[in-house]
Amino acid sequence: MKKLIAALGLSLMTMGLAHADIATLKANLQKNYPDITPQSIQPTPIKDIYEVYMEGEVVYTNDEARYFFIGNMVDLKNKVSLTEQRLQELNKIDVKTLPLNQAIKHVKGNGKRVMYVFSDPDCPYCHALEEELKKVDNVTVYLFLYPLKNLHPNAEAMAQKIWCSKDKYSAWENYVLDRKQPTGKEGCATPVQKNLELGEKLHIDGTPTFFLKDGQRISGARSADDINQLLDSVQ
What we know:
By secondary structure, the protein is an alpha+beta fold. Helix content is 38%, strand content 20%.
C-alpha cells in the first residue's frame, strides 16, 4: 500500500510538472510570437517535447518555444505516424454545424452514406475526385463550391454560374467532367462568398477537401475504392 501511495504521489507530481511546463510554453509562445494563438498544446512521448497545434498544423518544441520541429513524429516500431494520427483527430469538425443550405445536394442510390465536399470547379484534383465519385453509389453528397481564386482566377465566376443553373449538380458534373460551360447567369444570389469564409474558418487551404459523417477530414482526390472504405468506416 505504501508503495502504491508513493507511486501515485510521484505520478501526480509528474503531472503537475507537465502542466507547469505547458504553462511556461504558453507564456513563451505569447511572448515570442504574440500573433500566433495555439489551439492546443499537449505533451508527446518524447520527454520535454510538446505538440503545438496552430492554424491547422502540428509542430513540436520545448517549453522555451524558440526552436521548432516541423514534420512527422513516427513510432518506427509500430510503423505509425503519430503526427498524422493527431492531425486526423485535431482536424475533425462537427458536421452538424455545416450550413447545408450553402451546398448543392446530390443523392445517389439510397443515399445512406454522407460526404461533405469542398471543391473548386477549375481544380484538376477536384475533377479527378469527381471521376471517382461517378463509381460510388448509395451516397448523399453535399457539394460546397469553393473556388480558390489565387490559383484559378476564373473559378469564382464559374462557381457562380454553376450555382445559378437550373440543375446545379448536373451543371457541376458537366463542367468538371466534360468541360461544358454552365448556362446559369452570374447575377443570381449565391453562397460562394459565404463558403469561402466558412472554408477559412475550417482551415481549408486546398481542394478537394471532404468530410465524413464523423467529421473526419480527408484532403485530396481518392479512388472510388478508398472512398467506399472511408464511407463504410463511419456507418
